[in-house]
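Could you join me in thinking about how sequence relates to backbone shape in a protein? We need material for that, and I hope you will provide a protein of your own picking. Once you have written the record down, we can walk along the chain together:

…
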Amino acid sequence: MLRWKSGRVALLHLFFEILSHDDIIFQKTYSRYHKWAMKWAKLLGKRCYLDIDDAPSRINATKTLKNFREMLVLADGVFAGSNNLVEYCKPYQINTWLIPSSIYLKHYLVDSFSNDKICLCWIGNGKYYKQDLIGVLLEPLKQIAAKHPVRLKLIGACGEKELYQAFSGIKGLEIDFIDTIEWSSPAAVSKAMQNVDIGLYPLISNDFNYYKCGFKALEYMAIGIPVVSSSVAINIDIIGHGKDGYLVDSTDEWIAALNDLICNAAKRQEMGDAGRKKVEQYYSVDKTASLIGSLITCGARG
């Protein structure tokens, strides 16, 4: 897999790098430059693959979608992170395979800790998910904080004023805003997620979220904590309702799920253990790498 940073010099370097590889994976890259790079690689007889774990465009940008569809046709195959993405890509590329999002377990350790207050956690990009956070979580957290001493750790708030105003105004809720971390550092991500009891995964049901691949749920499960998630997209397949987390839709369901986990340490432990085992069994990087390797090897054999 070749990484390209923006700029003409970097693009030229990418074109030269392609010469020394047999198989090229384009990961979530659909600009005209990447399309040109794929065409160049195909002219040289290279095998090209697309790796996608989100909708190709958050805002349905016409040019991005056009490039993406052209790259689908050009590619030798597509690695898609959810069944919904498989269905999206199949009409353009028959060789589309489900490759679930995966976790490098070495970087996600199960902690032993005891909090004075139950710590709820969300991790992500607050700039893009503030509407999901506010629209889904605000009312449940108001009611939960009125009953229980809880803390919310919001990792990736990105300095978004709307998030600060919405959640800081919840009476009784202790909140820890972490605007950013060194996302490229597995150690930094792992450290930020220490000492949390319950993972939150709120998603509004919309066209973009329909293609989500559940990485956030897998992160929570990998550190051995239960997940409370909107029953949207692939989360329905990843999370076993009542086994390693809860799938919820309404405000009342969010409240009931959080209340149950807050009041039951044994259930948090049981669900957290089950989630970690599931990630080890089905969603580890080792298993995904083996699957991708076998598909590429089959492609090389024709």
Q: What stands out?
A: The longest strand covers residues 47-52.
